[in-house]
Amino acid sequence: MKTMQNIDSFTHVRGESLFVDDISIRQDTLFGLVFDSPKAHGIIKNVDYSKAEKLEGVVKIFTFKDVPGENQIGGILPDEPLWAEKEVHFWGQPIAFIVAETESIAKKARQLIEIEIEELPVITTAKEAKSKGSFINAPRTFNLGDTKEAFDNCDYIFEGETFSNGQEHLYLETQGCYAIPQENGSIKLISSTQGPTAVQKITARVLGVAMHKIEVDVIRLGGGFGGKEDQATPWAVMTAVAVQHLNRPVKYILNRHDDLRMTGKRHPYSSFFKIGLNKELKIVAFEAEFLQNAGAAADLSPAIAERTLFHATNSYFVPNVKTSVYSCKTNLPPNTAFRGFGGPQGMFVIESAIAAAADNLGIDRKYIQEVNLLDENDEFSYGQIATQVEARNTWFSAKEKFELEKIEKEVASFNKTNEHFKKGVSLMPIAFGISFTNTAMNHARALVHIYQDGSVGVSTGAVEMGQSVNTKMLQVAQEILGISAGKVKLETTNTTRVANTSPSAASSTADLNGKAVKLACEKLLERLVNVAANILQEEESVISICNDLIYVADKKSSLSWEELISQAMLERVALSENAHYATPVIHFDKTIEKGHPFAYHVYGTAITITTVDCIRGVYEIDAVKIVHDFGKSMNIGIDLGQVEGALAQGIGWMTMEEISYDSNGRLLSNALSTYKVPDIFSAPKTIDTIPLETAGNGMAILKSKAVGEPPLMYGIGTYFAIQNAVKSFNKDYKLKFHAPFTPEKVLMALYEK
Known about the structure:
Elements: H1 9-13, E1 30-36, E2 42-48, H2 50-54, E3 58-62, E4 87-88, E5 94-100, H3 103-112, E6 114-119, H4 126-131, E7 140-144, H5 147-152, E8 156-164, E9 176-181, E10 187-191, H6 196-207, E11 214-218, H7 233-246, E12 250-253, H8 256-262, E13 269-277, E14 283-295, H9 301-310, E15 320-329, H10 343-361, H11 365-371, H12 391-401, H13 404-417, E16 421-434, E17 443-450, E18 456-460, H14 469-481, E19 488-490, E20 493-494, H15 509-536, E21 543-546, E22 549-552, E23 555-560, H16 561-570, E24 576-582, E25 587-589, E26 594-596, E27 600-613, E28 619-628, H17 636-655, E29 686-691, H18 716-729, E30 738-739, H19 743-750
Parallel strand pairs: 1-12, 8-30, 10-11, 14-15, 18-19, 28-29
Antiparallel strand pairs: 1-5, 2-4, 2-6, 3-5, 7-15, 8-13, 9-10, 9-12, 11-20, 13-14, 16-27, 17-18, 17-24, 21-22, 22-23, 25-26, 27-28
Helix pairs in contact: 6-7, 9-10, 10-11, 14-15, 17-18
């Protein structure tokens, strides 16, 4: 296992790292601000901008009437206008864009706008949307075997309902963009986006220009978590429309309250399950219906719904499966990508079904989990055959290495001797597929320059957003070229250097872009080895480069890296390379809902121990002990950090982060005083992560598996550990699966009769 410090750490700690709001702006820069809907659903009868327009310092107020191209920013489906026209569909929907000399003037102008809206009925829940036939698109269903026949042969059948709430991304850097006019009608957008090409494409569509007129540049993001994959786009487009009209730079950085109000969250899901087992506790049949609260427009909901189906059976083999998902259209801001992308919502349902079955049978949930874990060559409900399966390896390794039997005895002893504090233990296995499930998105490019002095510049489509992907790209270039890290620089992500990129998402960024960097560096290395062989009068097969020196049959030669580059320049050898990588093997046919959509799966098992204060309903997470499948980690320090960060986010989603809207569609959890995220006091007291010993997977970059999303699902185990503690205190408690399991809900559960 290797490690390298995050190359941004030094400037981060010193406050020198640049984000959109840190860019030096031109003197003639203007500032934008959105005027958004104060109602969740209604007909716009009249908007009076006159008072705002007369305010000194207001340059122009833009509406849909000022769009030269299409007033449409929808990606998967064209159902989302940039600015509302005749009707508003959610509280916070952009109606106009105020451009003024200063931010404070824009804020004053917004208060002067008067709007009259004829209110229409508001739908806020997925259940209500389904009952009224309000959907984003047609439902989808995955089938394996025959559940109807299988249920007839089950010894035990249990049914139930679950709910998992949304989750606010709460990236430290809010949404924003700085747009700068260039020559000949071109515009440069410095955007905080996970999807530079999406911003470029949709901006061009709205402006009615060719994509080459729009340059998108991303330095880094102050967090994204999926919230800037699709939802960074409108703010960039608005600034671009203003620049096109005014030919002056326009900057727009959302304040936290506006960001919370106007952006979508993780999708809440209302779900229903039916699970059937035989006497050996094997799951014979499983059915689930997922009602996804998509919000008012598609955004990425159809793709997220699909991934829910892909992960509906988690790391278990179930021979008979029928799962359906409905993307329900409501009057909330369009919900969007969030770390896990629908997978966590699916996994929570089957884990709840197993918990319900175990409770009814009077046994520990782990017995059902263990006997149903995936084996080699088992089939997923979408047709992919499981290979290089590590489900059982991580499970039994966790039990052995962390001495589960000892933990359970200690917990039982504690619960027996403590009246007002109870502990709970749970196991949470995961199996998470790695790839964009839209096969066409699984490709990337890299541009590598070797300069005359031997220094190297690397450009990729990967966006650095705190996950240290730039560090991993540097490692790939350094390792393939055989040079020191100080010689390599990672450039900003820019659509003019690397075009037509997929977003940095789906835990695929390092794999896709790293493979492209590897290909580019290998082509450069091949040329350089040829030059070195000619200089040293040796065969190419015995030439290698390591630590900035050229070796012949593993012996140092007199030739250095810098000398080699100088000679290559004299010989007019190409020292730039543009490489393209597309993931092989993967495919999926939506007409039959079968295929091989994932390059590989990431496995792991977490043991979670919690303590509940049975007087107050509060709880502590004593420990989370994990055996995780990193493959052959290329940077264990970074990967461990990703596990811990994802775990904390998963715990927050399951225990305290509660999105709340009133019946009129107005966000109530609209500040950090009303929306709680994990802090140091709610984090696990200890997190122990042991890398699983494995040969790795060749489809992963340098056999180092993706690590961004899978560990978030370990947080689901916290829900069941708390529930087990509650059950040990209150024998009358009937299991419920309504997340997050907040202290208020815990307190009610402790004294439920």
